Every structure is written in C-alpha cells, then in structure tokens.
Amino acid sequence: MSFKKELVEIIEPRDIYVGDMNAPVTLEEFGEYESEACAKANEVVKQILEEYEGKVRLNFRHFPLTKIHQKSLKASEAAVASAQEGSTQFWQMHNILFANRRNLGTTSLKLYSKEAGVNNKKFLENLVDAMYGWQVQGDIREGHDRGVKDVPTFFINGERYNGKITYPELSKAIDEALKSKKKKAPAKQRA
Fold first, then answer.
1. CA neighbours within 13 Å on the CB side: how many for 53?
2. Domain ranges of the chain
3. Fold designation for 15-174
C-alpha cells in the first residue's frame, strides 16, 4: 500500500501585497514584529496606504533579528501562515502582531490568528512544525543579498530608500516615484 503525499502550495511573502495590485508604486519593507522602530514605521505605512490608495501597494518581507528578538521568527511564520488565507487576513495579522509585539508566544499567535479571521485548524501545529520557516528564511536571504542589515529597510520600486521613515519624508519619495513613472509611461498612439 502506498501513501500519496499531499502537495501544499505555499504563497511566498514576495507574492503577498496589500493595496491595489496595479498600483504604479511598490513599497517594499524588510521588517520584523518585535521591533519598536518597525511598529512606528507600520503606522507611517498605514497612513501612506490610505493617502495613496490605488497608487501604492505594500510588500512586507520578513527579516527577524533573532539575536535581539527571539519571538520574531515565529511571529513572521504566523504572518505567512495567515497570508495563505488571503491578503486581508495577512494585513489583519500584520497589524495585530505589531499591536501585541511584547506578547508573541506561540499560544498568543494562535489567538491572534483567530482575531485576524484565519480559519486554519492546523495553525498551531503548522507553527510548531515550522511549516512556513523556509519562506521566512528566503526573505532573510534575499534581504542579505540586497544589503539589508537592520529593520525597517524600505525599497520603492526596487530602489533602496535611505531617508527618514516619517510620513512627510516617505511621501516625498513616493511622489518622486510617481512622477518618474509618469515620465516613463509610453505615449498613447492615435488611431
């Protein structure tokens, strides 16, 4: 008797976006859930997504600093697990994790998943088994390849952002990215 192994397709963090999929500006953040600086940046990002609705989309990449924050790795895995049910659940979980960044034990993560609307009955089992660990490790590797050393680190349309992470500064950089997108847009031909 042979057993057929069930193949589970996992949505990778690089494919999880919040905001309009066709937005001309992609804001990419490498961050983690225990960091005070990332929590503050998240408030700025929420404001950006609201003010630039339809013009900016966010891709959050996981870069847990496990030497400082031991629970950030499992929190990142919990966010990836939530994303498997949709970007709404990911975004809800993402914000809940930041709001509770001082309480990210495995049991708490399970409770937060319910609050975020995740229905996976094996959520806790998947966390314990590190089912989404490879995806988080993939983000860490990519972050290292792109020169990320600390969190939060932002990229706007693939270009590293080196300014302050405040609404005025980040919005100025997004305005510049929007202007350069308009300049590069091909002129429509007349029939």
1. 2
2. 15-174
3. Glutaredoxin (3.40.30)
